[in-house]
Amino acid sequence: MGTLAGIEFFTATVEAGSFASAARKLGVTASAVSRRVAQLERELGVPLLSRTTRSLSLTEDGRAFHERCVRILGELREAHDAMARASRKPSGLLRVEVPVALGHAVITPKVPRFLERYPEIRLELTMRDQFVDPVAEGIDVLVRIGPPGESSLIARRLGASQIVPCGAPTYLARRGTPKSPSDLAEHDCIGYLRDGRPDPWRFEAADGTTMAVDIKGPYHANDAAAGYLAALEGRGLIALLDFVVKDAIARGDLVPVLEDFPMLTRPIHALYPKNRHLLPKVRVFLDFIVELFQSAEHVGGPRISRSSERREALRR
């Protein structure tokens, strides 16, 4: 502990430029600062400062040691502040952004429960599907579907959601049920419109690779809700994340197809800046949504069966 005190006196001296200036900043005498720095030098066995009657300068060893000391003291201050924040009651403005479909289907129905639990938190919830920089926009927690990617943000996995191809009973009665992904060429499919064309439907083979199947149909949209409504009306097959279609499947309004040919499973993460991770309001919200996603077997609807024979046929 004496070494830690010596480090504090040493870094204060370097920053202030003299023992006297450091002493005024620390509220002690100049001789006390000088003695502590000299004691630190004896413990290390190397001189840290070159002293003259008029100035102080860092030695080569002193410069290298000072760089490490600054980092160590910064981390100690951050740890101290984080613990102090963590002990406070969760309160204040909390800004959260989530994807539109996930927000409507999973998160917003449970928001009242969160606000009841933490009445001193003011929640601002934004729903959009574009990826944004949470640091630049002042967002505390960003929930996103898909791999978190490379960034300085901390990622906390919440769960996963599988894409489910399905259609209305009226459509299937009129056009038949596809037996394999190749049958989609003969069907009207409602696609998610991206960059002027519908996304291919991607199926997962037994060896973990994927097969992309181009789709066609008279109607595509860049909004999952619009496609969902068209599918309910029997306008074509659609592939949506399980949490979007699970209630319609449970009611019989939509019927899963191609159950032996699983489509991709997408991970779901909460992303947040490093300096937010121990704020009480952020910590309790993260715990809340983790609990929310873990409260069910999985995020959304029925599990897709995985026939090894059919999966091998897809791989070939």
Automatic annotation (TrEMBL):
Record keyword rRNA-binding present: no
Entry-linked Gene3D superfamilies: 3.40.190.290, Winged helix-like DNA-binding domain superfamily/Winged helix DNA-binding domain
Pfam families in alphabetical order: HTH_1 (PF00126), LysR_substrate (PF03466)
PROSITE patterns: HTH_LYSR (PS50931)
PANTHER family in alphabetical order: HTH-TYPE TRANSCRIPTIONAL ACTIVATOR TTDR-RELATED (PTHR30537:SF5), HTH-TYPE TRANSCRIPTIONAL REGULATOR (PTHR30537)
Keyword terms of this UniProt record: DNA-binding, Transcription, Transcription regulation
Keyword Disulfide bond on entry: no
InterPro entries registered for this protein in UniProt: LysR-type_TF_proteobact-type, LysR_HTH_N, LysR_subst-bd, WH-like_DNA-bd_sf, WH_DNA-bd_sf
Domain HTH lysR-type, residue spans: 1-59
Name of the protein in its database record: LysR family transcriptional regulator
Protein family (similarity comment): Belongs to the LysR transcriptional regulatory family.
Organism this protein belongs to: Pendulispora brunnea
